[in-house]
């Protein structure tokens, strides 16, 4: 049985060597839902059911997820090729797929250093397997939760890869909408922002319902109600708060599809014409 086969069978007692006690295949996980929507195979039936329920409410979900991923690629490419950033702290990275942060960054800057963080042990297994075969730069991954930024920032692996006396790109792509208001999302981001020096960047994207007047919030978020992390869509003004005190890079906080679009990049039409996500990049003064 291959790893991909295991990932599609919730009855399998072990996934790629990860103890069953660390994985609950019956509870949807955002990283595995995202993997399914991107066409991956590292997910369980519960993840697929949640994803399909989301698609039923928002028919453009799959295309929107791909647009979201493309934004991340363009922003990382800008950071490495134009802004001169060589250190990346990618939190909530998700299951590795094509065009990962380290791949894009190290194409432009071969010596780029990338540290990945995710709280799903399946992500850790796939990430480390991927990184083993990639000799470029310095890249590593840890299992940790964004809700405990102090543990991320003090982790020995993170400290080995990232030099916090030099500019760092903190990447929070598609993760903050899984932090509820009660979990102090702005406070968590401020801790990360405070840990990096002047010249550092914050790359952040976030789900919104600003373009979905005919969709009830509770209907959209319901597929995640029984997952390992509930979803909290936010308005543009609410997302803008994450960048407080930093200078937004042109064109500012916009829909992910309109953030520095690449004329050579294929742009598939999204049903409804909106990706339901904002994306932005800011630099620390």
What does this molecule look like?
The protein has eleven helices and eight strands. With 285 residues, it is an alpha/beta fold. It has a single domain (65-216, 232-283), classed as Vaccinia Virus protein VP39 (Rossmann fold), CATH 3.40.50. The longest helix is centred in the N-terminal third of the chain and has 21 residues, at 61-81. Mean pLDDT is 83; it is low at 1-17.
In short:
With 285 residues, the chain is an alpha/beta fold.
The total number of structural domains is 1
For the largest beta-sheet, the strand count, sense and barrel status come to: 8 strands, mixed
**Beta-strand segment tally:** 8
Overall average residue pLDDT: 83
Under CATH, the topology is which?
Rossmann fold
Number of helices: 11
Order of helices and strands: HHHHEHEHEHHEHEHHEEE
> Which superfamily, in CATH terms, is the homologous superfamily?
Vaccinia Virus protein VP39
CATH architecture: 3-Layer(aba) Sandwich
Low-confidence stretches: 1-17
The shape, in one word, is globular
Per DSSP, what share of the residues sits in E-state strands of 2 or more residues?
A: 5-15%
């Amino acid at each position: 049985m291959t790893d991909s086969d295991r990932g599609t069978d919730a009855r399998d007692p072990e996934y790629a060597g990860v103890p069953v006690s660390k994985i609950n295949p019956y509870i949807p996980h955002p990283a595995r839902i995202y993997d399914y929507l991107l066409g991956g195979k590292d997910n369980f039936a519960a993840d697929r059911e949640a994803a399909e329920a989301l698609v039923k409410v928002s028919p453009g979900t799959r295309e929107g997820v791909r647009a979201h991923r493309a934004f991340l690629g363009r922003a990382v490419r800008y950071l490495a090729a134009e802004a001169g950033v060589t250190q990346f702290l990618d939190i909530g990275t998700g299951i590795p797929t094509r065009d990962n942060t380290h791949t894009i960054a190290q194409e432009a800057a071969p010596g780029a250093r990338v540290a990945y963080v995710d709280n799903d042990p399946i992500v850790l297994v796939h990430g480390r397997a991927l990184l083993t075969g990639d000799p470029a730069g310095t890249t590593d991954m840890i299992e940790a939760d964004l809700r405990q930024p102090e543990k991320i920032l003090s982790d020995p692996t993170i400290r080995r890869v990232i030099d916090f006396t030099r500019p760092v790109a903190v990447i929070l792509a598609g993760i903050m909408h899984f932090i509820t208001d009660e979990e102090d999302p702005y406070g968590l981001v401020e801790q990360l922002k405070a840990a990096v020096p002047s010249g550092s960047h914050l790359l952040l994207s976030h789900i919104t319902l600003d373009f979905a007047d005919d969709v009830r919030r509770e209907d959209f978020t319901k597929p995640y109600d029984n997952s390992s992390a509930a979803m909290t869509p936010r308005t543009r003004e609410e997302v803008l708060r994450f960048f407080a005190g930093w200078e937004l890079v042109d064109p500012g906080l916009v829909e992910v599809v309109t953030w520095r679009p690449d004329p050579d990049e294929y742009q598939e039409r999204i049903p409804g014409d909106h990706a339901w996500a904002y994306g932005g990049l800011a630099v620390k003064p």
